[in-house]
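Proteins fold reproducibly. Next comes a concrete instance:

***
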Amino acid sequence: MKRALVLALFTGTLTSAAPADAAALPYQDPTLPVAQRVGDLLARMSLDDKLGQMTQAERAVVTPADLTQYRIGSVLSGGGSAPAQNDPAGWADLYDGLQRGALATPLQIPMIYGIDAVHGNNNVLGATIFPHNIGLGATRDPDLAQRIGRATAEEVVGSGQDWTFAPCVCVARNDRWGRTYESFSENPDLVSQMSTVVTGLQDGTPKVLATAKHYVGDGGTTNGTDQGDTQLSEAELRSVHLPPFRAAVQRGVGSVMISFSSWNGQKLHGHRYLVTDVLKGELGFTGFTVSDWAGIDQIDGQRGFTQAEVAQAINAGLDMIMVPNEWRLFLTHLKAAVNAGQIPMSRIDDANRRILTKKFEYGLFEQPLADRSYASTVGSAAHRTLAREAVRRSQVLLKNSGVLPLAKNGGKIFVAGKSADDIGNQSGGWTLSWQGASGNTVPGTTILQGIRDAVGSQATVTYARDGSGIDGSYRAAIAVVGETPYAEGAGDRTGSLTLDATDLSTINRLRAAGVPTVVVLVSGRPLDIASQVGDWNAVVASWLPGSEGGGVADVLFGDHAPTGKLPVTWMRSASQQPVNDGDGQTALYPYGHGLTYTTTDPDPEPQPSSCRVTYTTNDWNNGFTASVSVTNTGTAPVNPWSTQWTYTAGQRVTQAWSARVTQSGTAVTATGEAWNPSLAPGATATFGFNGSHTGSNPRPPSFTLNGSTCTAA
């Protein structure tokens, strides 16, 4: 990240700590290659310097003097950990104060500051709050995700930070999991496509370090238990949960956060095979790994981390350890483990090389202080416009008996529900605080205000939270109901997944008036509505839209037709969990479902008459997982669609998802499922499959779509 070096802000302490002949030190020369600078600096570092770089402390329990004395390499803010002045200037002041502590060390190695900017820079009051990932997954638009990453980077830099613990590229396979909304989809291919947010965060100006999390399998735990055990074969782990990390690595993601969860009983924080052999070796990840919050304390299942746990985590391949509160104890254990020979210096040097490489690449040595020139982007009109676009494109119309879109003019509209006028509910967890909160928590537009703005003076809008006061004189009623904020394990739902009694009473009160009723679901996952939905006239899944509730109104009143498609399977009953596409269970609404207003759809723009296929594989031993995307770039719909290719080295397809894939000899054919039988102009179908090979797995030489040769990307 580019930062303004304000020489006037450097203190006498910092100046006196500078090397006598700073210009002569190679690591301080920005014209030299990064690898050469890292090598030179590493050779000058003491053991304490190196161990400090591997340590990350919470900002509330560390001081600038601590960074100087202990050589701490990174500071973070946990959810809700903010300076007293929670605005861009207050954050930048906090950052600069801590950074001066780091720069007062003899080698002047800057710290890097991490924050959970997971749907915008959501810890900062006034920041744009974008939809949570499940809503973005419903848009099916990697370009939109990239633009949101770009906007988030500006707002992170504008508040003084340089590293975000995002995106979550988890694949949520059980809706009981409290982090379902942090997942783009149950489908690994869609999650992989949406990893473009990494590019948005890292590849522009300004840029921030992105983090792919949580490696690996956190979305597949038994019963959807947060931090639980993912009980899968290696082939299943590789086919479902690993592909998004491969995609993120291919995009150059700078860091990877290790999951709290276990794989077949072994905690990921101590799993050398998955972290070192697979992630760093097989996938070729060259950035640095970071633990989750005090995650090393869970390796042995006992409270309080030990020297043995520290050694196991570092030897497994963890480079930086998030020890928010007990960072002093961690440094003591880490140093003792190194001195006892439990951790080789080669592992310490490798971790430092990875961390320092990113600090050099992101310009921290040249421009270490906060770049306040981006402060004006925090909550800017342009970013809020982008967020509103994301909201309207994330809306999934589940059911419509003809009541939608609503007319803006004439008569009266009744609005009710606990989330209609509650920006905290519509933003969800990870909003100003870890768990989030109901109420007027952040600046923005509630869904109710969006509705009022949409109709203006053309119609009367009446609001009562519980639906009281409605009668038959209203031409429509809108119930905005669903979940209240939660994060991580606090959101795990082991029992019912239904609407609560208050929501159901509100909806029933509206229906009893004989008024057509539209139910807008504000939630971080599908809810169990099968027994009630038959009585509702229309249902919209709004997910957790964030600060721009006007985007919901854009769709309700037909300014924009709904285009969202379900990124997850919508259960018929909570007893089905886990329920996912291709598992043979009958869903209430299948993966990919989403209605629209056909009479208001714009005509598609003409496209060149052709098709495009993207084909990638993840190979291992004698097997592989393939991801295929087929795009219709022609001017006419392709219905039904069928993609063909030929293998040249005896490869065999063994298991497929999101398409029907058959093989006859060397010829393979993939056709659409019942929910995606056609490809409109510009539309893309993505599917995947597992296969076997005999030691060689060359790419098919060509692909066709219904007999027409495609461009291979």
